[in-house]
Amino acid sequence: MDEMKKPRRDFLFVATGAVVAIGAAAITRPLLGHMAPAGDSPLLHGLEVDLSLLKEGEQMTATFMGKPVAIRYRTPAEIKAAQADDTADLPHTETDRSRLRPKPDGKLDHRFLVFYPICTHFGCVVVGEAGDYDGWYCPCHGAHFDTSGRVRKGPAPINMEIPDYEWVSDGVIRLRRLPLLGFS
Ligand code: FES
């Protein structure tokens, strides 16, 4: 399969603690107001990301605390494939639902996958909508990840990691700061 065959709608957002956005011209302007530090300092309070402008099949990437965090609005087919493969022979066993976080009402929103788009082999940034499982592909040494970000093939030892985040409302997540010495 041609790993790069599909057009991608990935958008890059850079937010190193402040409100900064870079990305596709069509949506850069409206999204400037949709990513903001929670409270006075993202170091202390995290970064809130409004997902309301993200459409089905789109992905955004925020850089927070020096690491990229991807949020993908999965299609029904991607969700179905991820759930169906819960029972597959997975190198790193995790269910799709275990990789999601509940909304304030306690329910999971299976559409949004939030993850570090970093290959767990040697840390390359993965390519979306690619690979044998139509999830992500790492071009460095050929790791394939499914639509839940789970490794399925290649040298990556574990699934792509899920950042520490929470839903603060129906359409907004907060990326929590990394643990820092001296802060609680
Ligand atoms: S860094 Fe991704 S397969 Fe090696």
Description:
With 184 residues, the chain is of the alpha+beta class. It has a single domain, classed as Rieske Iron-sulfur Protein (3-layer Sandwich). 11% of the residues lie in helices and 27% in strands. The chain is built from three helices and twelve strands. The strands form three sheets. A four-stranded mixed β-sheet has the order 1-4-5-6, with no helix packed on it. The longest helix is centred in the middle third of the chain and has 9 residues, at 76-84. The protein is globular. The model is unreliable at 1-33 (pLDDT under 50). The structure holds FE2/S2 (inorganic) cluster. FE2/S2 (inorganic) cluster (FES) is lined by residues 119, 121-122, 124, 138, 140-143, 154-156.
How many E strands?
A: 12
Major β-sheet annotation: 4 strands, mixed
The CATH architecture would be 3-layer Sandwich
The name CATH uses for the topology is Rieske Iron-sulfur Protein
Which CATH class? Answer: Mainly Beta
Return the structural class: alpha+beta
* SSE string, helices as H and strands as E: EHEHEEEHEEEEEEE
Low-confidence stretches: 1-33
What's the layout of helices and strands?
Blueprint (H helix, E strand, L loop, with lengths): L9 E5 L10 H7 L3 E3 L4 H4 L1 E4 L8 E6 L2 E7 L2 H9 L27 E4 L11 E4 L4 E4 L4 E3 L5 E3 L11 E3 L4 E4 L9
Parallel strand pairs: 1-4
Antiparallel strand pairs: 2-3, 3-12, 4-5, 5-6, 7-8, 8-9, 9-10, 11-12
Bound molecules: FE2/S2 (inorganic) cluster.
List the main descriptive attributes of the protein structure presented here.
four-stranded mixed beta sheet, globular, 184 residues, Rieske Iron-sulfur Protein, binds FE2/S2 (inorganic) cluster
